[in-house]
Amino acid sequence: MQFTETELQGVWVIEPTPMLDDRGSFTRLFCEKEMADCGLATRFVQHSRAHSIKKGTLRGLHYQEEPYAEVKLVSCVRGAIFDVVVDLRPNSSTRYKWLGFELTSENMKQLYIPAGFAHGLQTLTDGTEVSYLISQFYTPNASTGVHYNDPTLSIGWPLMPTAMSERDKSWPLIRRRTATAS
Ligand SMILES: Cc1cn([C@H]2C[C@H](O)[C@@H](COP(=O)(O)OP(=O)(O)O[C@H]3O[C@@H](C)C(=O)[C@@H](O)[C@H]3O)O2)c(=O)[nH]c1=O
């Protein structure tokens, strides 16, 4: 496995190293030791999977408030997605910066997202399946979000959204959220 930290400190791309032979391949997707050697979390308490029917489906941008903030290890096991992380850490020099990565069943890349980030994705194919390893239990009362089209972020989504939850359409803008908090 190849671990590469991105320009957002704490966000890593993990690329597999398939071992090929006449039968096909064998690919390690998780290694506690290799993760720990990079200083990454290794304890995940839930493994979830999301199926999206249509290309262009948009989910996010989600996170859980402290003390339920999650680390996520995301991969696309069928089809392809544009996977987005947004730095929301109050004291970060890259606060409100975002990055997008193409994760596909072919490239088997995984995105490691630390606590303090919002996460979202858009499907690039029909019939997409996304896998999440998550470090915290799902806590609906702590579960919140940021609007996918927030002008503070200006995320370059690749497609017009074709399907979204009502909840995701109605997340507040960062500016409104900050004003309410202060
Ligand atoms: C996220 C989640 C949802 N649910 C339930 C709540 C609801 O009835 C149904 C669908 O939930 P949502 O609409 O929140 O699903 P979705 O919009 O796919 O939420 C996911 O979005 C991406 C971007 C993430 O980063 C994930 O962590 C997760 O938040 O599943 C759980 O039971 N456990 C979970 O961990």
How would you describe the overall organization of this protein?
The chain is mostly beta strands and 182 residues long. It has a six-stranded antiparallel beta sheet with strand order 1-2-10-7-12-5, with no helix packed on it. A five-stranded antiparallel beta sheet has the order 9-8-11-6-13, with no helix packed on it. The mean pLDDT is 96. The chain has helices spanning 32-37, 166-169, 174-181, and strands at residues 2-5, 12-15, 19-21, 24-26, 46-52, 58-64, 72-78, 80-87, 98-104, 110-113, 117-123, 128-134, 143-145. It has a single domain (2-181), classed as Jelly Rolls (Sandwich), CATH 2.60.120.10. The protein is globular. Bound molecules: dtdp-4-keto-L-rhamnose.
- The general outline is globular
Distance between the termini: 44 Å
Number of strands: 13
The largest β sheet comes out as: 6 strands, antiparallel
Please give the domain count. Answer: 1
CATH H-level homologous superfamily name:
Jelly Rolls
Poorly predicted regions are none
**Helix tally?**
3
Helical residues, percent:
under 10%
Determine the CATH topology: Jelly Rolls
Q: Trace the largest sheet across and list its strands.
A: 1-2-10-7-12-5
Bound molecules: dtdp-4-keto-L-rhamnose
Look at the structure and give the mean pLDDT. 96
Order of helices and strands: EEEEHEEEEEEEEEHH
Summing up helix and strand content along with how strands pair, one would put the structural category as mainly beta
Approximate strand percentage: 35-45%
Named at the architecture level, the CATH assignment is: Sandwich
CATH class: Mainly Beta
